[in-house]
Amino acid sequence: MIEARVLQLLDEAQGVFAAGDLEGALELFETAESEARNDGAADLADRALCNASFVRIEMGQAEAQIPRLRQLFMATSHTRNRCSAAYNIAAAYINLNEIDKAFEWAKRSGDLAEQVDDPAVRAGSNNQAATLALRLSHYEEAEEGFHRALGALENQTDAYQRANHAAVLGNLGYVLMCTDRLAAGLGMCEQARASLDEAGADHMVYENLQDLCYGYILDDQLEHAQACGEKALDLAEEYEDFQVMKNCLFLLAEIAVRRGDTFRARRFLRELTHFYPEVEMNEEIIDVFLATDLTNVVNLRG
Questions:
Q1: What is the pTM for the complete model shown?
Q2: Please, are residues 114 and 122 in contact by the beta-carbon 8 Å criterion?
Q3: Is the model's pLDDT at 75 over the cut of 80?
């Protein structure tokens, strides 16, 4: 009876979390943990604890979650819970911008995920590890991880997992662009874009559009690049993703330079002042950027 009750609470909490109600989700996860713990269902309680910790990380409490997740990771022999604990520790370190530590824990999570009979867990852990590998320019590891994530999602039919499949495919396409396989990378990213557009996943497609902007600049298709970059910038602003906004301003400035429109390029570069208040974006700095190939400067996964 307790297992059914706790699983029901976990499912309800996941739905509340997906709807953006972090406080409501946290309350349900912690209720599930308490009820499972009181009934002696340790593995279910640990699973709920991992979920609650992830919500707290999202709420800006990353540092406080690491010790309890480490303790769980060391104490349990339950593979799924160890995998989830490692995944969440990696997420906490990402939140704290300690990327090397995050990558080490993400790799642990990815290795454990291969022993878990749940495609969503395998896909999530491998995608996290691959995304961090990409951020650290470990392209071979990133490509391998994205392929594993795609394999886990290949036969999933629900809309959420199909959108995740498209997002991972786009990430893989970006890896190909970074490793001198531009045409193949653009093809994958366009395929991902079509799937995300079909799913109405605007909250996921703007990073893909950013990557397409970058790729089309490299391929000297500046009209396509500008269209992708402008749409990515608009959506990133809507969803308050400041990293993608910065990237798009750099890329759109580069497009303007390549078209000989330095006035427009300067406008985009001046807009970056909002993101770097400690740096005065004066004309001398702007002139340096105008003389630089910004595709070699911008880090799309920075």
A1: 0.87
A2: yes
A3: yes
